[in-house]
């Protein structure tokens, strides 16, 4: 009789479908004791395969599980997650073309999406009108635990607001446990990682839709997530004249800005004290900062190794004080006689110097950096309009004399824009060969007269620098009309100067100068007279043009 009972029990166990059998998707894993996740259940529980049928991959029933095509699911995660924080998963259903979910949770055809007359009618056409199903079944039947409104393990659906319009059942599986919920065409949930072991894990999800007599499987998806005890960090670097940020090649004597991003989507480290310890590898020493952004200038060329350590001091609830085991009577008597104020209890918690309870978490970043000379600065020191004959007067030509500091450039680009430097009109790039000194002349043509913004960029393989200027361009030829205008303006300026001098002499108040007896004083008055004469006819130049710094040679 005992053997028959054991055999019957083995047959029943073999016939029972467990969550692990349905949700493992063909993956086999040994039964291991896992730490329980809050709100999750063991995958050794029984699965109701009558209400929630299970189909293997390749089963022909998958082709008919949805009207109008096949539904796919996309499972995303914000992993990696620092142990103790929450990791979030979002699953989204991708419906067949021209189908969407309406505000009541029904699946409808989009109007005017295809040539199908069903989707072009004024009356809405449903793929699945679940609202009508629920309204026809009656309130008592729809809320009974023995009807559709239960999960695969037999638990009833939660009756929060709008639950009757959520027509999809999502069953998630990981770490030997499962979590089930209802939702619309997308679902989002988070799980705390305090009881999840470090490393890579797989999150799988199976999605079922509402049916007349049972729920119908429509899609499966899975994603890999990572739980780590190292703070996930990302470091971005920026330098003003660097041509390619991703190549880790930077320019000497130009500051590099480092920006540290901590991946903490659940805000687990919000109340933590975070410090950043930098070692730039150039012998400048260790630099500790409380800000996530810093800058550093390499003054030498070469290859350097950058090391960053991010440390977070996380406050946690203090563990209770636990007494130690009682000491023998003789030992207690001896301690009491030597120190009457001693205590036999200790605190089993981790303390920092200020007495608070906390845990430490660190994140590390290491990368190699190459520092080269690069182009540091570009200056436009002269602009000259080229005189042309009438036969060559189609365009106006202007020569730009440009100098640079740092390494020698290999290419030059000129961008001609409107006076606001916002709208680009033309871009010209040319390779150049500079062998000795960074001094070159760039000739550019302008089709029409006017005011332009000029941007000249000199670059090499690793760096580039920019100089800008505003230029006013006249017509390409000096026609008779233009010459007449200049002659008229010149004569007008002469007559204006003569008139101003006559008025000055006529209305200036006369003040006699007292005659002195000394010859030196007479000479001083004469010098002052000639200085006034020079100031009238030869005024001092007040022009300040930052572009005219020196007189370069032309390359």
TrEMBL record:
Secretion signal, residue range per the UniProt entry: 1-15
InterPro entries, A to Z: Ig-like_fold, PKAT, PKAT_KLD, PKD/Chitinase_dom, PKD_dom, PKD_dom_sf, PMEL_NMB_N
Domain PKD stretches: 270-310
Membrane topology, as annotated: Single-pass type I membrane protein
Compositionally biased tracts (Low complexity): 334-347
Molecular function per GO: integrin binding
SUPFAM superfamilies named among the record's database cross-references: PKD domain
Annotated region (Disordered), positions in chain: 327-352
Transmembrane segments: 484-504
UniProt-recorded name of the protein: Protein QNR-71
Species whose genome carries this gene: Gavia stellata (Red-throated diver)
